[in-house]
Amino acid sequence: MSTELLHEILKEIKGVNHRLTNVENKVDNLDHRLTSLENRFSNLEQRFSTLEQGQINLEQRFSTLENNFTNLEQKFSTLENNFTNLEQRFSTLENRFTNLEQGQAHLSNKFDNLEQKLDIINEQTARLSEYHTENNIKLDNITDKIETIEAITKENLYDITKLKIIK
What we know:
Layout: H1 2-60, H2 66-166
Helix pairs in contact: 1-2
């Protein structure tokens, strides 16, 4: 019975390890996606910096380039929309990462519980082994005593038979 339980626990541990590997793979994937977002954000910052320099130049030539300034305002609005979208995606990514952390903590708790159960099983197995050894020793003692009683009974029967013959 305890072997089956140990096998069942081992299966659960393997399952937990498999799920933990899946979580680690997902975390790695999220890390790659976050790196990609950071690169895109860096590119947006570079583009924003370029737009700011262009705006300074436009201010110097404002009287002759009013139409170009309108185009820059539109591009800036698009950039703000893109940045807002990026913030929303980043927020979603943060939420997913938080969920992964919570799932990982839950798995960690389950693993701790399994370790505690395994420790209990190990203790119980040790007690059963000790009990088995004690019982074997007691059984050997009983066997020795029975053999002694049989030998004494045999001698007594022999003596009784002798006494009957003498009588």
